[in-house]
Amino acid sequence: MSQVRPLRSALYMPAANERALEKAKSLPADAIIFDLEDAVAPDAKESAREAACAAAASGQYGRRVLTIRSNGLDTGWGSADLAAIATSTAAAVVVPKVSSVGYLDEVSACLDANGAPPAMTIWAMIETPTAILDARAIAAHSRVSVLVMGTNDLARELRAPLAPGRRALLPHLATALLAAREAGKTILDGVFNDVKDPDGFADECAQGVELGFDGKTLIHPSQVEIANRAWAPTEAEVEQARRIITAFDEAIAAGRGVVTVDGRMIENLHVANAQRTLAIAEAIASLD
């Protein structure tokens, strides 16, 4: 199995806020998204850009995956953002409102023209009806490594309420998930807005796990531990995974065609799931 890199929690941090950048150094988030877009006022865009790139290059954020969310190329800041991010040592640029493969090609060309290494990837935000309808092609783009659901903007454009349970968004979340899985890419769930409702947040994390997301984007440090817990295998799940793999290996060695664990028949797909559970658990343990 290929190496697993947990992305249970990806925390947006406003790059214009010096205290937030400092705090992010000690948070147990799997990834930090230094934000130049929604969280930054127009008159602070340029200083935020400098601060984000300096933070990404600082070496002070430990094992966290560091990314920077740029402004769109249709704004007055997008091109300069990409030019700066290209040599920032960030792992990826988070691109808002991706609507087509052509737009991704434009972003990728801008990164290359400004000296970005080939390893710098794009996290493509899926937050418009057009992006949902083109999710398959977006996910398949060679430079895209992660899809990020922008559920706030998506709900606004659909004229749908962000009610508990997100019933209005479920078909669109599922469409993006299918695209990510077909392309073999990671996909992160959208943010939960009420930072004073940890129970509601935990419920939405549980829903995200059940749907098949790899993790969740966050807007507040208090959400990190809850997301990390939701997307980490429990001790019982790890133990069951070990039993499944052991029983299957023993059956193969003994030439038996039927394998059961806890009264349930085990097939190759169950073994693959068990191997992934163990890989995730080991990767999380190495981070901790």
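[next item in queue]
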Amino acid sequence: MIDLRLAWRRLAASPMVFGAAVLTLALGMGVNALLFSATSGLLLKPLPFQDGDALAWLLTETAAKPGVRETTTGEEGEAVARSTSPYEATAAVGDSALVRELERSHQRWRGLWATTGLFQVLKIAPALGAVPPTLPPDGAPRAMVIGNARWQRDFGADPGIIGRELAFADNKRFVVVGVLPPALEFPFARPPHPGHGAGFLPGEQDYWILAPDPPGGHPGGVMIGRLGSGQDHPRAQAVLSAVSAQLAREHPASHAGRTLVNVPLRQQILGPLSRAVPLLQAFAVLVLAIACANLASLLIARGATRTDEVTVRLALGARLSDLVRLRAAEAFVISVLGAGAGLGIAWIGRAWLARLAPRHEALVGRITIDAGVVLALGGAAVLVTFACGVFPALWRRRSAMLPAHASRVTRSDVRRSLRTLVACQIALSVTLAASALLLGRSLQRLLDTDPGYRTEGVFAADAILYVPTREAQVVMGDLVTRLRAVPGVDAVGFVHSTPLTGKWIVRDTFEILDGLAQGRTRELPGSFVAHDYFRAMQIPIVAGRGFSEADLSRRDYPIIINDIAARQYFPGRSPIGERVRITGALREIVGVVGATRDLALDMPAEPQWYLPGLSGTSELVVRATAGLATMPAALRREIAATDPRFIVQRIDALDGIASDTVMERRLAARLAGIFAGLAIVVAGLGLYGVLSFSVAQRRREFAIRAAVGATRGAIARLLVGDGLRAGAIGIGVGMLAGAAAARELRPFLYETVNADLWAVPLAAALLLGVSLAASIGPALRGAATSVVTALRRE
């Protein structure tokens, strides 16, 4: 304690050095604490299922759409069951939605259908009731396991719910056989793939419908499996690849080009974060390394100015171990304060992440500043104490024993060591800056990509009206009339699934009757739209016309295709007036519109078709030119006033939806930018401190130079040259490291080309400018050294 009190007083006597050291270390430890929390919570913390890392989704990929995962067929599910499966249990699941008709309103339940094997896959059992050994026969009410929250909210946690029959719209009836465990979130955090209908909304479900899985009658859908003992995901993928190859040989017409894929549950939940988090953790470690180098520089420079004090203490009988212990105590005080401030920075960063990703609460909730983080920070404090306190003190031990005439060599050694540390800081800063520039440019390129529509001022409302289609068309026509009268509303339209939400994926083929591309197309994505959808989304009509309201009642629905389909299937001629066969009927092409990116901004546009269609599940799209802040409330008010049976699922701004689709890229780019900025500032301060120390140590030299005729400009240029040389060494090493980092970053970048290596020289130029700026102040002070003042100090 005596050493700590003495260390505190000694540090407080130099508040500028003390504050700079604590702040530098706090920044380095803060970002590392935040990223350590993210790494621990996302990559290491157990999933909310027993042995969660043994779980995997079983999906398919096709040669025509690599990287796009789809549901499995019944034949694929059956083939997996017949194979020497690496899974101890599998189940098929699908999304589902039901509407409960209450006296004055409708209530929408979201849930899943699942084969009974899902309980074995997740290793759970109903909290109440049991999974029946046999399911009800065809024609009888199907078995339902009700969600725990729904059970408590709507039925008062009545245990008499077991065996009760529940009725839903369309005369759908179910018998409750069990209650799901409380707080069971399945799917967890992220849906397994863009779905159909309810779209696999993650989180707690209102119900599971139990589906049969008889031998030879696998339902297909999304499959999930649990690996058996001694199995791993690569081995499971090898088995699935063999199953796919066998199916392709047996059924080439339906399974050629299809491949079953084993997607580990954790990998699917994290998505791009599974690769981004380790990368960001590496960036954070670089920031801490720069901070530690800066701290070591400060302590070495501070110790070098206290040679006389060390000499006096040794002459009075102090042991070298006492001096080393005192230096270690000073470093420990700095480390503890830096760790405490870093913990506060980590808390602030955690809150910032929650605001950055409001729709990813389940993932952000796993990032916690807990006891593990505090222990990690404590361990880092000990390491920093040893590296930045004890090592410099031991190095000074040798210099303290040197005779007085060797002091000049000792000072030269100090300056050389400090320049080495500064060069390391600058090299790491160049690497971080180049990486941040690349990630930022990639994100900006993605955001600048034209999706084919304009998201600004567009609001999407998922408002469901569960009534017959003809009645829904009338009610929604009334809603359109009301909304057009709202001040600021420019256009109102409907689409079965708003772009970038992934609620529906509709794909179908159409047959071209003549021309060079005559024949059936491959499956193409399509949309059902109504009213002023193209105008609301500002999708340009390239040729022909858009849909009119009269098209909804035509028996021979017209069709619109995008310009990619027009060029691909009708080369050299206008498709307007051509007829194609789709959904079993001949349809006339009446218009061509611009291509759009409806699934994701980083997925290229492809041929697409549009049909006029409007039902109670269509989504509302409204473009507004004024009153954007109050528009969601106005939409909700008008929807409720039109018909109280509307079920409003969400009302979101489309630009917010678009922004959310690049959340992972934005997170990586922003954090990398913050880390690079911190690194540059810390490196600049480090160089400034080293040059300031050099000026203080070389006042006698500058005075002699001035006395023999050196001008102030010459002395200033000498010092600036020293700073630039130290910076140049670090920049050279950093450029090599930055080029290597750029190659490693390519999987994280959007449309990366070799020209993007401009980021490395740009980062080098930035650090060169920082080196110059950090050199000017000390250079001017050194040039202003007075001969009289220097001699008086001597």
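[queue empty]
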